[in-house]
Amino acid sequence: MTRLITSGFSHFILFIGILIMIVPVWMIFASSTHSGLTINTQGLQMFLGDSFYENYLRVLLYKGGFFKEITALKMFLNSFIMATGVAILSVITSLMAAYALVYFRTKYATLLFWMIFVTILVPLELRIFPTYSVMAELNLVNSYFGLIVPISASAIATLFFRQFYKTVPDELLESAKLDGANTWRFFIDFLLPLSKTMIVAMLIFMFVFGYNQYLWPLLVTSSEQYWTVVMGLKMMSGSIVHRFAFVMMSMVPPILIIIVLQKHFIKGVFQDK
Amino acid sequence: MKKVQFKSSYSQYLFLAPQLGILLIFLYWPIIQTFRDAFTMQDAFGFGTQFVWFDNFLFIFDDPAYWIAFKFTIIYSFVITLITASIGLLLAVQANNVMHGKSAYKTLLIWPYAIAPAVVGVMANYFFSERFGLLYHLFNNLWGFNWYESVFDSYIYLIIAGSWKQISANFIFFLAGLQAIQRSVIEASMIDCKNSIRRFWTITFPLLMPTTFFLIIINITYAFFDTFGIIDTTTIGAPSGETRTLVYKAYMDGFRGLDLGSAGAQSIMMMFIVLFITIFQFRYIEGRIHYN
Question: How far does Cα A197 stand from its chain's mean position?
Fold first, then answer.
């Protein structure tokens, strides 16, 4: 009986928690399916209206921005390129760096580790103007390269891979050596297949990280052709319902990825089986 | 470290090269330039720079606006950490407690983690706008809420906007921490102590300490850096610069004011604050908690 009561209480608390998360997003979604007139006269809406297609199609295809050069569709493409680029580049470089740190004997091991680790303490926000001037000197402003590479200068994934490699039993390398595997063969044929869960988790993590960037794209793209979705939120013109629709669409990709790939993500980050 | 390793060879540096290369060009080089900016000053016409020792630092310490941002940053990170960790823990304990629907609850609570802070800010805007913001009108009826003018009310606005999405990160990590506690420990404690609330605070909570301290660091970092997107889409520092974090102020001084010397000095101060918190965590806290 007490068991039932406490579990009922738990469900109740969780229900309230979920309401706090879902209701605001639902209200923006419901409001985004109404006409601008309804919102202006009656405020945010709780129930769906009948302007869904009209509003969303207009937002996707209408050329907005200061110079009316970019559609939301193009911004989604840019965000997708940026997020994928950040995910792939940072995961590949981190996999390799962590491998070098864990599997090679060197007298510089501590120095190399700290050189990589200490970068976690200096997020992009703290070096934003100098990073911008480096990009300007290298002529990389307004390019996908400029959007992707400075964001990938992050060692968080390296730390995760390093932790993971340390749990791989020593026997693996011993037997690989018996088979005559060299450093590349061992990395590609033995270690990478073992790290699959971890790689997927880090890809998801870095994709969301890249997609959600706001300040850096704002600074490094003066040409509208390179605007991303999240920074575009501040730039979009149009009536209130169109802005609602744009906000709703902007959160769909990362939320979908987290929900669909949730199991892999949690498995990798917490390393549970 | 591993007992079995490869001998150091050129291939080790081939594996390190891509990451180190990116870090050197896009991280170390800018950091060196930040230091250069912080110790120099541009003359009024922008023709040359001059080495000025600690003048930029003295200038920001003398600036009341810096201490306002400092105060806001400390209060904001403290309150966000407290709120998101408590609610995250409360929800995680309940989710760990239920027999059915555990994974459904997980899915229903995990997704806000994925939303960009700037998007959260834009959404919060709609709920706190004077025209049709529901929360604005609710609070306004309760105590005359008006974040455009009252500092306290603008704090409330930013704390709600900043905490909302971060609850889900805290929830996920606490739930993982709870699930990692061995069943036998919990069963043994059930025999020793019948009071479930006391059992939680004397047995479960101490075992969660590593997770808690990890989350404190995560939440502080979030409040320091990630809230930029929230502030820039909500109050933009209103009223009169009272709700600017240190990072937001440094950005504004560098970008709007084109004062790179001051922005550089502020960035370096921020690096020291982060370094201090990290060392503090390693030295004084990590040593005192028990990992199971």
Answer: 17
Please report residues of A whose CB lies closer than 8 A to that of B5: 102-105, 173
Identify the CA nearest to B265 among candidates B36, B57, B28.
B57
The C-alpha atoms of residue B161 and residue A26 are separated, in whole angstroms, by: 16
The per-residue pLDDT for range A167-180, each reduced to its tens digit, is 888 888 888 888 88
Do B207 and B159 fall within a single domain? yes
Q: What is the pLDDT of residues B231-276, one digit of tens each?
A: 999 999 888 888 999 999 998 888 877 788 888 999 999 999 988 8
Which range marks the domain in which residue B81 is found? 57-288
Same domain, B252 and B284: yes
The CATH number of residue B137's host domain is: 1.10.3720.10
pLDDT at B17: 92
Which of A125, A129, A247, A15 lies closest to B260, judged by CA? A129
Backbone φ and ψ for A129, nearest 5 degrees, come out as: -70, -45
Going by the DSSP 8-state scheme, the letter that residue B200 receives in this structure is: I
From the centroid of its chain, how far is CA A245?
Answer: 21
Q: Are residues B92 and B128 in the same domain?
A: yes
- Considering its fold, how many domains does chain B have in total? 2
**Residues B267 and B34 sit within 8 Å (Cβ to Cβ):** yes
Other Cβ atoms closer than 10 A to B45: 6
The structure tokens listed for B27 are 């991280």
Complex ipTM: 0.90
Residue B271 lies in a domain: yes
**Among A90, B57, B156, which Cα is nearest to B146's?**
B156
Measured CA to CA in angstroms, residue A213 lies from A17, A238, B163 at distances of 27, 23, 19
- With a threshold of 0.90, does the pTM exceed it? yes
Q: Which residue of B has its CA nearest to A91?
A: B19
8 A C-beta contact, residue B257 and residue A136: no
Measure A16 CA to nearest chain B CA, in Å.
Answer: 10
Is A22 in Cβ contact with B26 (below 8 Å)? no
B108-111: Cβ within 8 A, 24+ apart: B108/A18, B108/A21, B108/A22, B109/A14, B109/A17, B109/A18, B109/A21, B109/B167, B109/B168, B109/B171, B109/B172, B110/A258, B110/A259, B110/A262, B110/B168, B110/B171, B110/B172, B111/A21, B111/A255, B111/A258, B111/A259, B111/B168
Q: How far apart are CA B212 and CA B89, in angstroms?
A: 9
Residues B30 and B145 in one domain: no
Nearest to B126 among A20, A28, A250 (CB): A28
